[in-house]
Each structure stands twice: as C-alpha cells, then as structure tokens.
Amino acid sequence: MKSKEQITEPDFQKLVALVLNDLALRRTMLENREQEVNQQLSSLERDAELEQLDDQIQQLQRDHDHYRQFQDPAFKFNSQRYFQGPSMGLPQQP
C-alpha cells in the first residue's frame, strides 16, 4: 500500500472530486428514498426508517463537508466526462 505522501496533487484532487461526486449521488438517493417512505409506510415504520435515513444523510453531509475542505477550486475535473469516457467501456461522446 502506498502512503498518502506518494500521491500526486492532481491525483489527489481527482480523488477528492470523485469522493464528493459519490457522496452527492448517495445523498440524493437517500433523499429520494426518504420521500418514498413518507408516502408509503405506516406511521411507526415510517418514523423509524425516516430517522435512520436522516442519520445517514447527516453522516454523508459531514463527510462531504470534510472532503470539500481538501478540494482545490482551480483543479478542473469533469466527472460526467470521466464516467462516460472509454475508461468505463462506453463510447466517447463528441
């Protein structure tokens, strides 16, 4: 395993961008689930699951806020292009 001192700054910034993107997606998924739960379950089941979902969302937000402190605003990284590129086995978009 490499130490954190061995990672280059661009690789570190790419890693931070990917982590932030992942956390944002996971939070959106939890918030969507929260809306579904509000509409479907009985009050006791709903309250228990909503509390659990809220705890998970808060943890994701704390993680997002923590990692955002390491993000260099000058580093340009297009996560959409990254995930749609040939590295993911998909055709490259023009």
Question: How far apart are the termini?
Answer: 37 Å
Largest beta-sheet characterization: none
**Number of DSSP helices?**
3
Low-pLDDT segments? none
Radius of gyration: 18 Å
Oligomer: single chain
- What is the mean predicted local confidence, pLDDT? 84
- Class based on secondary structure composition and strand pairing: mainly alpha
Number of strands: 0
- Taken from the alpha-carbon principal axes, the silhouette is elongated
| Element-level helix/strand string | HHH
- What is the percentage of strand-forming residues? under 5%
Helix content: 55-70%
List keywords for this structure.
single chain, about 90 residues, mainly alpha, elongated
Describe the fold and architecture.
By secondary structure, the chain is mostly helical. Helix content is 68%, strand content 0%. The protein has 3 helices and no strands. Helix 1 (9-40) runs antiparallel to helix 2. It starts with 8 loop residues before the first helix and ends in a 10-residue tail after the last helix. The model has no long low-confidence stretch (mean pLDDT 84).
